[in-house]
Design a protein that fits this description.
Blueprint (H helix, E strand, L loop, with lengths): L4 H13 L13 H8 L10 H15 L13 H16 L25 H8 L6 E12 L2 E12 L3 H22 L4 E4 L20 E4 L21 H9 L3 E2 H5 L5 E3 L5
Parallel strand pairs: 1-3
Antiparallel strand pairs: 1-2, 3-4, 4-6, 5-6
Helix pairs in contact: 3-4, 6-7
This protein binds zinc ion.
């Protein structure tokens, strides 16, 4: 993990709020910032700057009631998550709702997606691997396993195509191309893939081309909200756009497989 300009800016801003005179909030760790950071009581003078900076972020999190783990100056997944919450809280003044308090699995289902079992899915979508159509993406995707490979269109089931297009158009309008890249909303892990569920005997929803995976590297199948990137508050809108169309995020509904969203309800 590297400290970026925005980390330093947040630190400078908060040091100044404490009257510790970190100098201008310019994102550059100069002498004033370093001296101010040393005056934070919890910091140890023997620690390198980076560790002091991280410890201060952990302290700020703790003071605002966000669990960042131990104040040890090391950037683990808990600190990473806390930083996302802290940043949003400091910039908006509103504490983002923890994922557990979000409305579970979508309550709206405007496209009447079927329940996820083989009988209901076959009745609604037909046989696995059939009725596929090409969707031209509103913004380019990149293959998660080969990020230099740009994807401009993909195959999905003809019944989900329009809905998927509406979602991704809203994503583009809301986040814009730069934020999309930053948040990995373009790192695509696949849609149509006729296969059985991992660790199961029934068909995966990918078999009908009615599920999408995003950024699998940072949203491993078994990871919960404490580790998965897409569980963070920055992704609330992303999920909202899918859920408004009745799509189900397994992450939001079941707290695993945060890479995955599907046009089928969990029973
Ligand atoms: Zn999936």
């Amino acid at each position: 993990m590297e400290l970026t300009k925005s980390h330093i800016q947040l630190i400078q801003q908060e040091l100044n709020k404490r009257g510790l005179n970190a100098g201008p909030v310019d994102g550059i760790a100069g002498n004033k910032t370093k001296a101010a950071l040393l005056r934070v009581a919890e910091n140890k003078s023997t620690w390198p700057f980076k560790r002091q900076a991280i410890a201060f972020i952990q302290l700020l999190s703790k003071e605002n009631g966000i669990d960042a783990g131990k104040i040890d100056g090391y950037w683990g997944p808990q600190t990473d998550y806390a930083y996302g919450v802290l940043r949003e809280f400091l910039s908006t003044g509103i504490m983002p709702a923890p994922w557990r308090d979000e409305a579970p699995a979508s309550t709206t289902n405007p496209n009447n997606w079927p329940v996820e079992n083989d009988v209901a899915l076959k009745a609604f979508y037909g046989d696995v691997g059939k009725n596929q159509t090409r969707l031209t993406l509103p913004y380019p995707h990149r293959l998660s396993w080969n990020k230099r490979q740009v994807v401009k269109s993909l195959f999905c089931h003809e019944k989900v195509k329009d809905s998927m297009l509406r979602v991704l158009t809203k994503v583009l309008e809301h986040y814009g191309p730069e934020e999309i890249k930053k948040l990995h909303l373009d790192i695509w892990g696949g849609c149509l893939n006729v296969r059985k569920k991992r660790g199961g005997t029934t068909w995966s929803t990918h078999s009908w081309g009615i599920a999408m995976d995003y950024d699998p590297d940072n949203n491993s199948l078994r990871w919960g909200a404490d580790r998965a990137l897409f569980a963070r508050p920055e992704y609330d809108k992303w999920w909202q756009f899918w859920e408004e169309e009745g799509w189900v995020s397994l992450g939001r509904a079941k707290n695993y497989d945060w890479m995955h969203v599907q046009a089928a309800l969990k029973d």
